[in-house]
Amino acid sequence: MKKIQIAPSLLAADFARLKDEIQKVEAGGADMLHVDVMDGHFVPNLAIGLGTVESIRKITKLPLDLHLMIMTPEKFALDFADAGADSITFHAEAVAQDYARKYKDRGYSMQLVCKDFYDRKRLDATIDAIRRKGKKAAVAINPDTDAEVLEFIDRVDMVLAMTVWPGFGGQKFIESVVPKVAKLRKMSATIDIEVDGGVDLESVGKAVAAGANVLVAGTSVFHAPDPAAALRRLREKAEASHGV
Known about the structure:
The chain is an alpha/beta fold. The chain has a single domain, classed as TIM Barrel (Alpha-Beta Barrel). The protein has helices at about 20-25, 50-60, 75-85, 120-130, 180-185, 205-210, 220, 225-240; strands spanning about 5-10, 35-40, 45, 65-70, 85-90, 100-105, 110, 135-140, 160, 190-195, 215. The strands form two sheets. It has a nine-stranded mixed sheet. A two-stranded antiparallel sheet has the order 6-7. α3 (about 75-85) packs parallel to α4 and α6 (about 205-210) packs parallel to α8 (about 225-240). The longest helix is centred in the C-terminal third of the chain and has 15 residues, at about 225-240. The protein is globular, with a radius of gyration of 17 Å. The N and C termini lie close together (about 10 Å).
C-alpha cells in the first residue's frame, strides 16, 4: 500500500507572502510542494517560470513537485531540474502526435483511436532529460484522456490524473475521473498516483479509495483560515480512506 503524500499547490498561495505561506504548510506536515508551470499555449494561462522556481528552492527544503503544463517539455526539463525541481511531470498530450490529440473547449485530450500516439523522439528526450539529472519522472493526463494511452507507464515514477481541466485554481473536482484513477492503479500497483484539482475534505476520500496516494491541494489548504490545520485534516481524511 503506497504512502499517502500531500502536496500543497503554490498556485493558490499568496505570492506576496510566499515564505510565510510555505512555512505554514511545512508546519502542517506537507510532504512536498506542488509547483505549476504554464505556457499560455498548452493551457490558457501563464504561471511560474525558472526564476520563481529557483527562489522557491532557496526558502524550503521540501521536495518540489513540478507540473509542466507546457507544450514543449523536452526543451525545458533540464532547466527546471537545475532550478531545483525534485520531480518533474510532463503531459502525455503535450508529447503526442498532432493527430493523436484533440483540443476541446477546456484543453487537450487523447483517446484510443490510433496506433501510435506519441512523437517518440520528444517523449524519449523529455524522460531522458529528467532522468539525466537524477530527478523523478512523472506523466500527467487530462480529465478526458484515456488511461490506456499511457503505454509507457513503466518508464515513469508517477502518474498524475487531473481531476480538473488544468490552467486555473479553485475548480470543482471532476468525479468522473475517479474510475480512471482505479484503472491506473490496476495498471500498476507500485507507481505513485497523484490527483490534482478540487481536492478537499469532500473529494479526497473518493480519490484515495480508488488508488491515489499523492494529493495536490491548493485552495482547500491555502485559502483556509489555518492552512496547517487544514492540511492535517486533509491527511486524516485521506488516511482514513486508505485501502478502502
